[in-house]
């Protein structure tokens, strides 16, 4: 690794300055996909499991009726937002901007409606199979019958969360009859806890950060075989649940007539916490679009845990406090001090770059999304809008484009802003976000 680039990146991290870091470990798909422990067939397997569960999901959640039990979001063309970002960030030609609207995913209201719900279903299927109660030609909506509810009720699902993961596990777990305990980190918003308590979920409040909340949850689960700990830092199920999005997005691209090839790359801007969600997407995007898809992780300047893990190569043995950072950010979904090693290792050859941005930029974009497209998102989501500026307007970003032989004009590429949460945020909280944004921008 280039020593000078690394020390300059670390300097910016320590000073909490926005950063574009090009991943020197990036490899073409021809050189890396076969070497990974997870394969394309694992994504397909996850998709098929979700298809099996679709009739059950439809019964549990009426909002899935029109989608036949499939939890999916729209790919929305956003010329208004593109024009606003182009103007404010000085990006002539930026026009092909799409929002992948996971902020509006039904059932859980965030991107966790993919990974979190999938992880619960995967476990429920395993318990059901092992019970011997599943007959041949089984319709999965039968899992809602009393004998299975009773079976699931013998188990407790446990999870550490900054808020949204807990919501998804709590909603799905309680719908099936599992007992659920959610260990909330100090960042978790009160309304998320309240929503869970209303569903009978045991909310355990911790006065420390996400990583520490997970340690505590894991400790309790290890001592009890009836507690299943859903381990966000190491879960293959969460990762694969997220990855399924790309199988579906490939179709959305085709329907929208979006061309993806070497001359027309696609940039995916992905908000990153512990790494599972953006990691699963990146893994599947490289399978779906090969070397024409460039995945870029977005983190707050005060919580760049994945960036730090990748730069140092230390992954979960690194943390942001060692760099003098505080973890203080209003992007609660991204407030993670220590990254997933499992995801970080997988990302080494797959990921194109990491960027960081300030909370004030996040708020600026949050307001822009509302004013141009009427979208109400969490600050974690709007952070993804910061991608193009760091890519095209920093020396490191331009160097990255040069090294990859990519066009310098933003008009030649498709830009996907992957929003991650927002639907369940109470209206008064959305308003408070906007008020804060307006004050910060004034
Ligand atoms: C969980 C979450 C993310 C990031 O996902 P990780 O798997 O933690 O990297 C981003 N935004 C929101 C709103 C989230 O809830």
Question: In words, what does this structure look like?
Answer:
By secondary structure, the chain is of the alpha/beta class. Helix content is 47%, strand content 13%. The chain has 18 helices and eleven strands. The chain has a seven-stranded mixed beta sheet, sandwiched between helices. The chain has a four-stranded parallel beta sheet with strand order 6-5-4-7, with helices on both faces. Helix 3 crosses helix 10 and helix 7 packs parallel to helix 8. The radius of gyration is 21 Å and the shape is globular. The mean pLDDT is 95. The site of pyridoxal-5'-phosphate has 20 residues, from helix 7, helix 11 and helix 15.
Q: Which bin fits the share of residues in helices?
A: 40-55%
* SS-derived structural category: alpha/beta
Oligomer, anyone? single chain
Taking the alpha carbons of the first and last residues, their distance comes to 42 Å
How much of the residues is beta strand, in percent? 5-15%
Which spans have pLDDT < 50 for at least 5 consecutive residues?
Answer: none
User: Rg, please?
Assistant: 21 Å
Bound molecules: pyridoxal-5'-phosphate
Number of H/I helices: 18
Question: How many strand units?
Answer: 11
The average pLDDT is 95
In N-to-C order, the SSE pattern is: HEHHEHEHHEHEHEHEHEHEHHEHHHHEH
Strand order in the sheet with the most strands: 1-10-9-8-11-3-2
């Amino acid at each position: 690794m280039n020593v000078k680039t690394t020390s300059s990146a670390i300097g910016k991290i320590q000073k909490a300055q926005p950063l574009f870091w090009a991943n020197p470990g990036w490899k073409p798909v021809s050189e890396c996909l076969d070497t990974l422990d997870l394969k394309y067939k694992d994504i397909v397997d996850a998709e098929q499991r979700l298809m099996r569960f679709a009739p059950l999901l439809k019964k549990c959640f009426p909002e899935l009726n029109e989608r036949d039990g499939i939890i999916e979001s729209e790919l929305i063309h956003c010329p208004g937002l593109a024009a606003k970002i182009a103007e404010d960030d000085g990006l002539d030609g930026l026009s092909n901007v799409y929002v992948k609207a996971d902020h509006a995913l039904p059932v859980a209201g965030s991107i966790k409606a993919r990974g979190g719900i999938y992880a619960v279903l995967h476990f429920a299927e395993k318990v059901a199979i092992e019970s011997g109660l599943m007959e041949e030609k089984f319709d999965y909506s039968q899992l809602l019958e009393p004998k299975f509810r009773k079976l699931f009720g013998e188990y407790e699902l446990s999870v550490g969360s900054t808020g949204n993961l807990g919501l998804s596990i709590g909603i799905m777990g309680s719908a099936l009859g599992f007992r659920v305990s959610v260990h909330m980190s100090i960042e978790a918003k009160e309304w998320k806890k309240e929503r869970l308590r209303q569903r009978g979920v045991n909310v355990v409040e911790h006065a420390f950060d996400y990583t520490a909340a997970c340690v505590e949850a894991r400790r309790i689960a290890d001592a009890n075989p009836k507690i299943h700990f859903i381990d966000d830092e190491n879960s293959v199920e969460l990762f694969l649940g997220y990855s399924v999005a790309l199988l579906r997005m490939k179709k959305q691209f085709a329907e929208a007539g979006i061309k993806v090839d070497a001359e027309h790359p696609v940039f995916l801007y992905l908000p990153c916490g512990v790494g599972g969600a953006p990691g699963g997407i990146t893994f599947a995007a490289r399978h779906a679009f090969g070397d024409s898809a460039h995945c870029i992780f977005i983190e707050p300047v005060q919580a760049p845990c994945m960036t730090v893990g990748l730069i140092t190569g230390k992954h979960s043995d690194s943390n942001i406090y060692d760099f003098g950072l505080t973890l203080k950010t209003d992007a609660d979904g991204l407030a993670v001090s220590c990254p997933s090693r499992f995801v970080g290792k997988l990302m080494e050859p797959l990921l194109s770059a990491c960027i960081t941005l300030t909370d004030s930029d996040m708020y600026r974009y949050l307001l822009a999304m509302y004013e141009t497209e009427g979208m109400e998102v969490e600050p974690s989501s709007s952070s993804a809008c910061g991608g193009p500026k760091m890519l095209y307007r920093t020396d490191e970003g331009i160097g990255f484009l040069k090294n990859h032989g990519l066009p310098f004009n933003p008009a030649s590429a498709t830009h996907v802003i992957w929003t991650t949460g927002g639907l369940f945020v109470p209206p008064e909280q959305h308003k408070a976000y906007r008020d804060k944004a307006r004050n910060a921008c004034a």
